[in-house]
């Protein structure tokens, strides 16, 4: 029998024995033949069930998956980007929280888009459901990202830098030299040097491990915490803010109560009781303008001199409010927004009785002070028949009259150089008693009739200071007094989150600078005695991020340590083993050239 046949027969016998043993075991334990065959590694023609799909996640598993995705840096950046995109329509589309009149005008001009924009809440972007959802998710994502990293960083601060790797030559920055100093002395010098350079260092085995740049992670955490602070400040400012406007004529005052505002808006959590108690009076408004050159008419000075008092019985104080220099009182800021003119007008009825006298604020139309408004006499006036009536006098005012004799009236300078007032006259019902809001600077003529001039048109007349306009048919007179007052418009705002937002912004910039310009790196110094008894010093560095300054820093550290552990002198080339005194290493220097060392001739009588 050949060797191959013998091997085949042996393998067959072994397989048969293994199968018999498997069947016996299966019979003893009550398993099926298929199971026994499978257990023995054999093949089976029986159908087998196949698993379809992967593991199924339960409610807790899906919750963990969602939390991990939400707290990832990628999702946080996506949410921050979406928040920035969401703020774009809030800047381009008029908002109800800023100016409702502009929103109404926009809706009137875009009737087709208005229903779509209203469903998308584009007129109230910052309080919309979708913007609030992005805002809250970003808030939760940042918190979920910061808390674990903070605990991890605290653990790193409490621990020590890791020990030196076994092979420092594999690190990106490496240097070595030999020195006669003792290894312990080299390690002590390296430890002192690294601590002096503000490294966190300690001795671990035969090496010194050091690490520096922990402020990088501090800056990173500070940046994220500052973002949370800014989000909180933004939310607090929107929820607890209050903002209102008030137009005040020289000599008049204002008290910080809700009924004193011309317009007022507040956050959803703001309470009227949160209004700071204070009051102020506009003593004088001063406006100066450039009188010559190409900048003629350009404003130079806008100042409002006021007398204010904190609380109900506070001491009166003087202060000048300028543009971007508000008056701060108990958390509220009073800004100077706008100014204009308020001519003093006196209205008398047909019997000569004064029914109205006062300064009438007019709204400016251009930079030269051209203004318009209405003088409304609501009480006390009787017409020529003795019946009660109301007067409406449309007014057009220019501080520097130009265009006389040219059929037009305009102002050529914003200062009071040559003031003039043009008045019309209507009588009837001003519709101010119906309870509906009305613009005080516009006249509703639906239930009023004009006074007629000689040509049948609306009675009008241009007056200079001190002149009087006599109404037709003995209906009375209107006098443009020589005194012309100025008015100033103020914005009183209370936003509790501004200081917190500024703090967060400064902290975010500081944290970003730290995370970008501070590098976290590790340095190891190993000193061991070599086989020849000379100390071998190895230094290596590893940065947590790539930086070209790491090789320079390691070279500086190595140079400092080299001064305390200088390089050992070079022993020179190996001379080899010393030659045998009886031998001649150089055959060319043989003193007996006839000597034959290969054949030794024996002496006479010696036995061969």
From TrEMBL:
It comes from the Bacteria. Residues 1-47, 558-608 are annotated as: Disordered. Residues 73-554 form the ResB-like domain. Residues 568-584 have a biased composition (Pro residues). It holds the Pfam family ResB. Residues 1-11, 21-38 have a biased composition (Low complexity). This is Cytochrome c biogenesis protein ResB. It comes from Streptomyces formicae.
